[in-house]
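[Backbone geometry]
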Amino acid sequence: ENLGIGRYRVWVRAIDNQEVAGYWSVARDFFINTTPVITAPAAQTDIASPTFQTITWTAIPDAVKYEVWADNLTTGQNRVIYRVGATALSTTTYSPTESLGFGTFSIWVRGLNSQGEPGLWSLARKHTVLRAPTVTAPSGGTFDTTPTFSWTTVSGATSYELSVRNAVTNVVVLSNKYVTTTSLTATQDIAPGQYQVLVRSRLGNYFSVWSAPSAFSIGQPPKITGAKLVGTPGKPQFSWTAVAGTERYELWVNNVATGKRVIYQTGLTNTTFTSATTLPPGTYRAWVRAVSTMGVITAWSASVDLVIAANELPQDALNSVGTLVQASLLINDGNQTPDGLLVENADQFIGEVDSQINADVRPEATVALASGAELLDSVEPAATVGSEYDAVMSEWQSAAWWTETSEMPDRVDLNSTAALAASIGFVVRNGQRPDDRRKRKS
């Protein structure tokens, strides 16, 4: 039998081969004090838990209550958990409600029978609690090739381990396992690129889990985060992420249909620019780049398309869909610069893939292209523009995929569909961008 906790009395007697029983022995009393086995928290190796976990243990026959005791070995506090007597537990689990903080704890459990008689305490289970820090710097973009890394303080941590890795190759470029403060400055230059910072805290032989990775970049272009129309009449407004150490930003906007540059700003000190002039309906492509105080220039950012749709609709379209007008932001992932050149080094270009974002509605039906500081280039003679596009179209016509792919949609039908969609305020985009192959004339 599996005897539970309690006092027992035992007698013994002999029986001979004739099945004749002898006298019972003198009674002997004894006590059963079975110990439970702690099953959680699990035995740790060198990784601490960020919080104190639920304590669980095995059940003991005839036990009606269980007592739990824990000491903090790091701080020297005894009985930080002490559920005994009237506060003993009737279950085999306990989620601590005490404010336990950090440290290495010793945990014991024992059972009590219905008479209040206890069994033996279990073997001690060691459990270390240590939070992970939070990285606070750097974040976003910077030109600093020897940045300072910083993070939050963790109570009880005696040191920290820092790891900086390339976000693309996953190669560790900086590692220090014994940082006794909450910051560290790189002593050697880190090459331009995209990186992640991770930190974990240490207490004796135990480490916390790694912090959430914090992303930053060195010498990379900004990211355009918004393109919309503001005011009445609507004027284009572009915004982008900041790059620490930047002296100025350059913004370049082309008319996609003509390939002409309509906005070019080279001395912007903020991360938002609103054009002083309106733009007629059409698709406009924007890029931005940063110039550091030392004259270092990033590559051009991934381009975004701002589509401004006219609100002059045919009467039948008005009757069916109303006066829908829209401007939208389309983010491209092609590796091209504003002047149409391919980026030779892929590491210098950050491609973005995002969904379409609707922007403000343009109120006026037709707006003349006003003159202003942003409208720099005059329109090229028709013959010159035509000859360049003829060369591009000739190149397309000779491509096998254009003429031989049976799955290619009928171009006449597609163009008709695009025209109809444009007439009611929607945008149909082709996958090819012939304007990107053209270089702006100096």
